[in-house]
Design the sequence.
């Protein structure tokens, strides 16, 4: 019950600023509306808390009263800062295969950054990114371009 009350204390919001762009149209057609994105933010938060063993330990959790996502037309894939995620809808145009799965994987990765500690900015960026990738993979949203078990030539990403 405590986890539910704490979970409800987090404000989740999504804004679609993509207008009639091709990426915005693909977002709305293949991923859904902002309701799916809000559900994904909530699910990613709950999963991250469980994986980090913080579901019932708010004192161990980074204080993040609000997680918001802004769908926009920009560069790259997505970036996040202080609980605000900016997702470039244009990225979706280059996704082959299941665009909803890839979108959800990126959402999980970015939500992790809202909850993870980073040593007051002193943790190696590669470590921070690999932890977010691990959470994404653990929930079953590994990116299609990631190598499978027994493949590849290193244990961790290039940042470490």
Sequence:
């Amino acid at each position: 019950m405590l986890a539910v009350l704490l979970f409800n204390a987090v404000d989740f919001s999504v804004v679609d600023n993509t207008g009639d762009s091709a990426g915005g149209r693909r977002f709305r057609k293949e991923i859904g509306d902002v309701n799916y994105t809000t559900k994904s933010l909530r699910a990613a938060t709950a999963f991250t808390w469980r994986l980090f063993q913080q579901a019932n330990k708010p004192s161990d959790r980074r204080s993040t009263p609000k997680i918001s996502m802004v769908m926009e037309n920009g560069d790259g894939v997505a970036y996040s800062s202080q609980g605000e995620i900016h997702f470039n809808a244009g990225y979706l145009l280059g996704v082959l295969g299941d665009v909803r799965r890839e979108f959800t994987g990126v959402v999980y990765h970015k939500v992790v950054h809202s909850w993870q500690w980073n040593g007051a900015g002193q943790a190696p960026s590669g470590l921070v990114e690999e932890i977010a990738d691990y959470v994404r993979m653990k929930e079953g949203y590994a990116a299609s371009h990631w190598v499978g078990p027994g493949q590849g030539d290193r244990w961790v990403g290039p940042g470490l």
